[in-house]
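[Target chain]
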Amino acid sequence: MTEGRALFFVFIAFAQLSFAANSATAGEFEISGFIAVEARYFPNQALFSEQDNAEISPSVSAEPELTYEWNRHRDRLTFVPFARFDADDDRRTHADIREASWLHVGKGWDLVVGFGRVFWGVAESRHLIDIINQFDGVEDIDNEDKLGQPMVNVQLQEDWGAISAFVLPGFRERTFPDDNARLRGLFPIDDNPTYDSAAKEAHVDFAFRWSHTIEDWDVGVSHFHGTSREPLLVLTPQPTGQTVFIPHYDQIDQTSLDVQLTTEAWLWKLEAMTRSGHGKRFFATVGGFEYTLYQIFETVYELGLLAEYQYDGRDKVGTPFTASEGDFFVGARLALNDVQSTGGLAGLTIDRTSEAVFCFVEFERRIDDHYKIELEGRFSFNEKEDILISSLKQDDFFTLRLRRFF
């Protein structure tokens, strides 16, 4: 995305703010968000000699959220910047506009203009159909953090469902760790990508989605046309003699379905999609269930048991790499339902071909009204036959984070 295009959308947001501030109807301004201090602990030595060998890597981050509402809450401006300073990874020291948008709510419709974040899907282990936003790859490896996406989004709400149409005038490149950082992988990743489209990051993408709730069923059908959020990493020798991965972004069409059935203690989940543009058209899916045990041990505790299967039929050559060709996921979610909102999530993914295992654990607990402590772990086992996981096998890490909300 060009700087000029980014500034254009920021200008729209602030122009609306100026209009609101001078309107006859008084508005409501609110500021919230968090600042956080974080330390990553890497128990193993780095696999590659070029990587930094720091055992503990500290960083600080901030994500304030400013909102302004007027016109009886029919109009809202939202501005959510994000910034992080990292002691060891230069690319992880970065700033981004997560959101900078104007929302107008009409009668049976609404409009969003600016930078936004959108989530599609129902599965726990893999966000297969979630394609509007680019992932912020320097924040974590779980594809949960998103870069702000410039958009114009119109949604219509009818008795037969909601229809959302998106115009996405600007592409965001995926972020990757620095050349000498942990979690880099086998080779450094160049920050000068190539594109299928001659318009490069200025290509205008389009998306459409219909969603509806029918009794116990939540159903969504979506289509996306534009620049793939998944880059193909092309191994390329450089004149210096160094070999690097250069990201290449194809033009794709993706049609998807997501379904969730809620029945008593069961949640049945399915995401499926078909995509063209990465060589031959392929099909991929992830599906499974979550079963919740309530009042375990005669307490208010809840334990959710999760199981999902991941399938991806893309070719192994000429397509973005995925580790989810035929994997099983099992996990558990614990909620203590106390005043501190104590909870945790743990899971592991097993590759049925290579038998590689990737595990994660997450725990969080509020200390008081303003502070929350979080602990996360990412680690793997039996990585020998899995190219992606084996290049990260020494990069197991634990993260301790303290957030201060305001």
